[in-house]
Amino acid sequence: MIDFDTLEKGQVIGSKTISVNRGDLVRYAGASGDFNPIHWNERFAKEVELDSVIAHGMFTMGSAVDVVSEWVGNPAAVIDYQTRFTKPVVVQDPAGTNPTDQPGTEILVEGKVGALDAEAHTARIDLTVSVDGTKVLMKSQAVVQL
Amino acid sequence: MGINPDIVGRVYPADETYQVGREKIREFAAATKATSRAHYDLDAAAELGFADLIAPPTFAIIIAQRADAKLVADPESGIDFTRVVHADQRFTHHRPIVAGDELVAELHVDLVREMGAGAMITSRAEITTTSGEKIATTISSLLVRAGE
C-alpha cells in the first residue's frame, strides 16, 4: 500500500520499457476494434505521408499507464488519465525477421509524482513517454485515488 | 472542405448496449501489456474488492470509439476518415468498469476549431450503465488534416 503522507512532488514512482512490434499492433487492433490501416499496412501508411506503420496512440497510452497501476497495486485507483499524442511511434518491419518475434520499437515510460491533493487524497502521476529520447506523448497525467 | 462547424452541440444518442465481457477484458489487457492480475484473475480482482475482472484504465476507448464512429460516419460532419489523427484523449472514471457491466455512450460534439489548413474536433462520450449509473466520461480530439 502507498502511504500518501510519505509522497513528495517529483518523486519517481517507477519506469519500464515497452516493446512494440507489428504483431502487437495487429493484436491491439483486434482487441480495441481500431482497424485503421495506418497501424498495420505499410503501403497505406506511406501513401498518407507517414514514414511507416505507426502504433495506435491508444496502444502507447494504454500500455504506459501500467507503470502507475503497478505502483499503486490497483488499476481501478486510476480515476483520471489524459494525454496528448505528439509524435508517431514508428514500428518497422526489418527484412529477415518474424514480425511477431523481433523485439520492435522500445517505448520508455517514467512516472513521477506531479502533484498531491491532500484533501481529495489523490496523487497526479506525470508520465514521460519517449522513443529514442524523443517524447511521443505530452501532458500524460494519471490521477490516482489513494 | 473542412469540418462543418454547425455540428457543435450535436448529440448522438446512447442507443447501442456494450456488454463488458471477461474475455474482452483479458484480451484488451494482454494487448496493452497490462500486468495487474486483477484484469485476468477473479481472485485477484476479489482481493481488491471487486466482484469480477477490472477493466484496464483505457478500456473505455472501445466504447468511446464506437460512439465517435457515428460522428465520423455522419455525412453532415464533413470528416474524411482517412485524414484523421488522434490528437488527445482523456478518461475520467466515476467508477471502475468491471466484467458484466452493460454500458451505453451518449456522444456530444463539444468543439470544432480551425487548425491551419485542417481542423480539430473535440467530442465527449458520457458512458453510463443501461440503468443510468455514471461510469466514465471520455474526451477525445481528432485532428482532420487538410486534403491536398
Report on this model:
The complex is a heterodimer of chains A (146) and B (148). With 146 residues, chain A is of the alpha+beta class. Chain A has a single domain (4-95, 102-145), classed as Thiol Ester Dehydrase, Chain A (Roll), CATH 3.10.129. Chain A has helices at 22-32, 42-47, 57-64, 66-72, and strands spanning 12-20, 78-85, 105-117, 122-131, 134-135, 137-145. In chain A, a hairpin with a 4-residue loop joins β3 and β4. Chain A is elongated. The mean pLDDT of chain A is 96. Chain B starts with 10 loop residues before the first strand and ends with a strand. The longest helix of chain B is centred in the middle third of the chain and has 13 residues, at 61-73. Chain B has helices at 22-31, 42-47, 61-73; strands spanning 11-12, 18-19, 84-93, 102-115, 118-129, 134-144. Chain B is elongated, with a radius of gyration of 17 Å. In chain B, a hairpin with a 4-residue loop joins β5 (118-129) and β6. Chain B is of the alpha+beta class and 148 residues long. The interface between A and B is large, with 36 and 35 residues. β2 (78-85) of chain A pairs antiparallel with β3 (84-93) of chain B, so a sheet runs across the interface.
Short description:
By secondary structure, chain A is an alpha+beta fold. Chain A has helices at residues 22-32, 42-47, 57-64, 66-72; strands at 12-20, 78-85, 105-117, 122-131, 134-135, 137-145.
Query: Largest beta sheet of chain A, briefly?
Result: 6 strands, antiparallel
Could you name the CATH topology of chain A?
A: Thiol Ester Dehydrase, Chain A
How large a portion of the residues of chain B is in β-strands, by DSSP E? 25-35%
Report helical residue fraction of chain B. 10-25%
Task: Output the CATH homologous superfamily of chain A.
Answer: Hotdog Thioesterase
Structural class of chain A: alpha+beta
Largest sheet of chain B at a glance? 6 strands, antiparallel
How confident is the prediction overall: mean pLDDT of chain A?
96
Q: Give the total of beta strands of chain A.
A: 6
What's the CATH architecture name of chain A? Roll
The helicity of chain A comes to 10-25%
